[in-house]
Every structure is written in structure tokens, then in C-alpha cells.
Amino acid sequence: MSDFKYDVDADGVAIITWDAEGKSMNVLTREAFGLVEEYVDRALEDEGVKGIVITSGKKDFAGGMDLNVLATIREESGENPAQGLFDFTMGGHRILRKLELAGMDPKTKKGGKPVACAINGTCAGIGTEIALACHHRVMTSNPKAKIGLPEIMIGIFPGGGGTMRYSRMVGAMAAAPVLLEGKMMDPKKAKGAQLIDAVADDALAAAKEWVLNAKDADLVKPWDAKGYKMPGGAPYHPAGFMTFVGASAMVHGKTQGAFPAAKALLSSIYEGALVDFDTALKIEARWFTNVLMNPSSSAMIRSLFLNKQALEKGAVRPKDVPDQSVKKIGVLGAGMMGAGIALVSAQAGMEVVLIDRDQDAADKGKAYSAAYMDKGIKRGKATEEKKEALLAQITATPDLDALKGCDLIIEAVFEDPGVKAEMTQKVEAIIPEDCIFASNTSTLPITELAKASSRPEQFIGIHFFSPVEKMFLVEIIKGKETGDRAVAKALDYVRQIRKTPIVVNDARFFYANRCIIPYINEGMRMITEGVSPVLIDNAARQLGFPVGPVQLTDETSIDLGAKIARATKAAMGDAYPESPSDDLIFWMEEQGRLGRKANAGFFDYDDKGKRAGYWKGLQEIYPLAAEQPDLIEVQERLMFAQVLEAVRALEEGVLMDIREGDVGAILAWGFAPWSGGPLSWLDILGTPYAAERCDSLAEQFGDRFTCPALLREMAEKGQSFYGRFAPEKSAAA
What phi and psi, each to the nearest 5 degrees, are found at residue 462? Predict the structure, then answer.
């Protein structure tokens, strides 16, 4: 058995079928790439073969390259991994170039055999690059199928010729949404973007028909034709110059220069546009190798692809617990969080009971799903029938008896232990004995909340991030008595709603909020020191964070920060670390500047709620310092405030798996994705240097930057976090 099969049909068309053995989706391995060349050679040499069609034996066409191949090549290349990666990449270029030229005469461009690609489902990465090397691409008409080049999302870029081929097809500016944003498109949009040539109900039949009727001229790619000019103009052309200036500005505007792959991709397109196509492929390979050798690339691949995928497939799920898929779920509280939980649960096909204090409040929560579907209908993503079907799955009611038969309850009522305890006891009197009870609390310890339960082994935390339907991460919290079935139930539920889970042990603020709060507090503290809010937020954005701590405080609401500070102080008593950041938050609360929701916070807002600049009144009590700190100093304070909490969470056993620390940080609050996460960032930095910087920051700014004992020990031993803690399967990245 092999990943590719070869057959010649009665019409003389060679059908190369991609069907990766033992995998649900086709991924390209080194051995499989060799088979592609073998079968292409066979078809080109066989006089009875009129042309070639490449298709898939699975429901989708391809999911991309097996990224473990790149790690293997680096290991095999010894002291010169860059050369090994470059040679491998150029080998791929040679195979796809052979496919593209298809035996035609180098001078006349005649005599070649037509090659078509029948894309029968979703196609990504190297699958799309193989398709782009074919002369004609036909995609199924199924609107659920998607095609694109999403490599930029995991820290690399299309290095199998996709960058050069697509940018030369449509021009640098038009290629940007596909190459620089990693957008996956449905067949209709893909045809408009020239990723494919045709859409058909039967892609294989349409591809074969094209092959049997193709002419010599149909086989010549634009860049191989005499007089080729790049759409939009080459860099040395006046129009092209402006195009590349605009593309560069767009890239830097979106990435703030923090993502190496985006810079390398744009450089590859720019330099490649100055030379012939075969030289351009060498340039692409050089920049691709450059990115692969950047530690950011391997960290992003590890966290956002390998580790994320492992967690979604149940890497931390208790192994001896049978399937716990949810059939009927009860959601207590129909506010924004509860309404969002009800929506995603109904989307996953579950029967949902949405409870609130009265019918109006419950109906309002259900209306959230209706409004969401209405937006989908306007964008052509949903229909009235789908809306009605989804709403029929949600029962909105104040009647707790409706919870009978539920196998999972998620409580999303007010962040008040008394209210939560009362609801827990009322609901447990109604639900089945084996029903799992979960709290969506974001701050209250699960072990304490479980004391109100008569079944603490069935009590667990399932912490969603807002807005529920948009955020990818769900944090599952084990209380001291939480049993394995409760953990398995929570993980199976998160899999059903297609989100990424992390499982952590119980502690105040759990993991995500534990790290986010110091990030916000450090920003607030700097304001009290006279550091410009503009500098603080821009320093964070230039690190790759989606928003800076000042803006984030406005978005999440200032009174929420004040409430958390008071509750934490009450719980910790004398152990609570006093901070000038609390004074600032309390003062803002007194001024009635509660953030975006009040149209007044650290920002001013216009009548439509759009930010209109930082509020200058802040400087009346916290004037700007005459001398502002260095950008790097601000960035280090913001980064170390978070990563040291991640280290402490690992040290204290709150984090049980290093993968969850990195994946959770990126998905929960957008921690510098280019770094691979806080623990990956420390590995990039090196633990000895990280410990040294802790000492310097602690001396200058205070004990909150004191080097944790674990980091100090690792620094002295020269250890890395992934060298010491990574599960075997993820260490290969």
C-alpha cells in the first residue's frame, strides 16, 4: 500500500489518486512526494497516456505537509540543517516544475501532456501548491469545501512554489489576502481569486474532460510565456513600485513587524518578481529555509499545529473513561456568557435548556442565538431553515424541572459564591445522579464552589472566554475532588463544540486570568509612573499582542477590574500585594469612566462607540514623565509579568502539561503568537538569560519580577522547558 495510486483509464487519462494510508486526511510525506514524481514520470513516458488528472481518494483533497518531515530533515542534516532544508525544498520545486512543464519542448512550449487537478473537497497548504502547478484546477461545488494557503497562521509561508505561482498569477496586492492572511475560501470565492479555474458537481469528470480537449497553448503558464508581465507591475515598474510599497505598509500595519514569516514572504515575492521563474523558486526556497531556521517558526508550528492538534484529539483525556459526548445540556444564566454557551451547544447538535430567573430574561438569552443566525443569513452563511432548526434546539425557561434528563449542566450565574451555591443545590435535586455539574466562573476557586455540591467528584470548572462563539479556547478546571469522568465529560463536550481545551488544577484565577491580570496591572502601574499609554499599548502590539493592556482594560471594563481587585484582597487578606495599579483602577471607577461599555474609560469615544484617542484627563492626576522609558524596557516588563506567572503555574502544578501553557496563552489572550507561547518564549530567550533579566528587573522594579525557583534551577543546569517537560510526541517539533 502507498499514499498514491496510479491508473490509466479507457480514455488514456492517467489518474493519480492521493489516498494517504491510515489517515483521515491526506498529508504529504517525503516518501509520498517521491511517488508523485515516479507516477508523473510514468505518465509522461507512456505514449498511450494523453494527460494526467490528480485527485483524492478521500472526502477532502489535502490537509498539507506532514510537518514532522521538516523536523526529521533538520535532525538528519547534522551540523548544516539549513542546507538540508533548502535541498529538500528545491527537490519539491523540481518535482512540481516537472509536473508544470509536463514534457513540453523547452523552446516551443509544445508537445506537453495536460495536467488537471480534481479537488473533491477541502485543500490546504502543499495540496493547494500541487494544484497551482497543474494546468487546470477544478473544484467540487460543495460550499463547505475550502481551499487556501494558511501556512502563515502557523509561522511559515507557502514554500512549495505557491508563493511564486500565486503572486505571479494575480499580482502582489491581490495575492495578499490568500498568502498573508491565510484565508481559506469556498469554491465560488476561490474561482474569483483565481485559486481554481472551474467549479463542478463532479470535479473528476470535469477535469478529465478538460484534459482530453486541452491544446498546447492551454498548458503554458503565464510566467513561461514570452513577454510575461506581472499583474500590477514588477517592482521596477512605477505602478509595481507603488503596489509593493502598499503591500509592505499593509503587512507592517497588521503584524507590527513581529512575525518573521510575513516579512520573509513579502521579501520572497519582491525579490522573485525581479528575476525569471526558476530563479524565483530558488529565492522562495532560500526565504522558506530562513523562516524554518528561525526559532519563532518551530515554536509556532509546535504550539499552533502539533500541540493544539494533540490537545484537541484528547492528549490529556483520562484514557480509561468511555465516551462522554453530551446529548442534553442545561445552561444556568441567560446573560451574555450563558447565551453564548447555549448558542455553541445548539450549533453542535445538542438539546439545550437555557434557564434564567424569569421568562423574559430567558427569552432574551435565546434571542442572542436568533440575532447571531440573522447575521449569518445576511452574509449568506445561514438560511431561515437553519435558524429555525437551531432555535428549536433551545428551550428558554425559568422552570428548573426542564433540566431533567440533562447529562451536563453549565452554571453561568453571577460571580457570587452564595448565588452559585444556592443554584448548585437546587439543580442537583432535579438532575440525574450521573449528571456532571460545571461552573463557568472565571475567578472563584472550583474546590470552594464544589463544597455546595453533594457530588464533588462530578463538579468541575468549564471556563469560557468572551464572546463564547468567537474565542477558541476553553479552560477546564479540576477541583481537589473532581473525578476522571467529569474531566472526560468536559473534554468531550469541548470537542463537540469544536474548541481547544486545556485542563488545569484549581487555584485562584486558574491559569489564563492568572497571567492576564499581571499583564494588565503592569500596564496600569506604568501609567502611574508617568509612562505614556500610547507607548504602553504600542509596545505590546509590536510584540504581537492583539491589543495593549490599556485598551484591553477598556474592552473588559474597568469596574470588573475593580471588583476582582476587591474580591481578591478580601480573600487573601494581609497576603494581598498592594499595588498602585489598584489605586488607578479605583480612581477611574470613581470618575465613572468604566471603559467602552460606558463610552468613557482610558479612551474617549464618539457617539458610535468608536475610540477617539486616549483620555487626556488621566494626566491631571498621573502626568506624563518628562523622559519616557526605552521601548524594550516597556516590552520586557509586559512580557515577564506574564511569563513568570506561567512558570509559577507550572511550578505549583496548576499547569499539568507544558503544551497547555503555551497553547492556552495564545488562544486565550493572544500572547505573542510568533513566540509559541510564554514557555516557548523563555526557551527562545534561553533560561540563563531569562533568569539574569529577572534579577535586573526585580532590582529595578520590584519583587514581582523575582526569578521563580524552577527557572533559577533550570538556568543553572542550562535546561529548556521543552527539553525538560515536553511529552515525547511534541518534543520532535
Answer: -125, 95
**Which residues of the chain register pLDDT less than 50?**
1, 729-733
CA separation for the pair 435, 426 (Å, rounded): 14
d(C-alpha 364, C-alpha 346), whole Å? 16
Handedness of CA 282, 283, 286, 287 (dihedral sign): negative
User: What is the Cα–Cα distance from 305 to 309, expressed in whole angstroms?
Assistant: 6
Q: How far apart are CA 712 and CA 479, in angstroms?
A: 29
Which of 235-238's residues contact partners 24+ apart within 8 Å by CB, and which partners?
A: 235/270, 235/273, 235/274, 236/274
Within 10 A of 416 (CB to CB), how many other CB atoms are there?
Answer: 12
Burial class (CB in 10 A: 0-12, 13-18, 19+), 462: buried
CB 673 within 8 A of CB 300: yes
* Contact call for residues 417 and 448 (beta carbons, < 8 A): yes
Q: What is the pLDDT of residue 567?
A: 81
- The amino acid occupying position 274 is L
Write out the three cell numbers for 185: 475560501
Cβ(675)–Cβ(666) under 8 Å? no
The residues pairing with 198 across neighbouring beta strands, listed in sequence order, are 138
CA distance 337 to 343: 10
Q: In what order do the strands lie in the sheet with 147-148?
A: 123-124, 147-148, 184-185
Q: Which pLDDT score, from 0 to 100, does residue 31 have?
A: 83
Q: Express each pLDDT in 571-600 by its tens digit.
A: 788 778 888 999 999 999 999 999 998 999
pLDDT of residue 1: 45
pLDDT value of residue 24: 85
d(CA 594, CA 614): 14
Per-residue confidence (pLDDT) for residue 733, from 0 to 100: 33
CA-CA distance, 299 to 292, in Å (whole number)? 10
AA identity, residue 249: A
The tens digit of pLDDT for each residue in 351-394 reads: 999 999 999 999 999 999 999 999 999 988 899 999 999 999 99
Answer yes or no: are the C-beta atoms of 156 and 65 closer than 8 Å.
no
Residue 732: predicted pLDDT: 33
Contacts of 485 (CB under 8 A, 6+ apart): 318, 321, 324, 436, 457, 458
What single DSSP character describes residue 146? -
- The helix/strand/coil state of 677 is coil
What single string gives the DSSP state of each residue in 363-432? HHHHHHHHHHHHHHHHTTS--HHHHHHHHHTEEEES-GGGGTT-SEEEE---S-HHHHHHHHHHHHTTS-
